[in-house]
User: What shape does this take?
Amino acid sequence: ICYLIQNGAAHFSFIFFRGIGTGAMHVICGAIVGGGLAYVWRRTWLKIAGTCGLLGAAITFHAIYNLLIAYGGTAQYIAYLLPVGILAAGKLIARYLKAEES
Assistant: This one.
C-alpha cells in the first residue's frame, strides 16, 4: 500500500483495482505452480523439467502483468482485467469439468 501511495496513486480506484488485480495474479501464479507440481511430481521423468517450466510460466505471466501495469494508459487497464478475467475463466472451466464428471 505504501508503494502504491508513493508512486502515483492519486485516485482510490487505482489502488483498489490494482490491489484486486495483484491479489488475483498471485492466486493464479500459485495455482499454476501448485496444481502443476501435483501433476508433474507424479511422473519421475518430468520432475526437474516440469518444475522449471511451471516456475518459468508463472514468472513470465507475472512479469507481463507488471510490465503492462508499469506502461500505463490502455495497457494498464488491460492489466487490471487480465488476472480477474483469467481467474473467472478458470472457475468456469473448473465448474464445467466438475459437471462433466457427474
Notes: The CA atoms of residues 5 and 12 lie 9 Å apart. The helical segments are 2-6, 12-40, 47-71, 73-101.
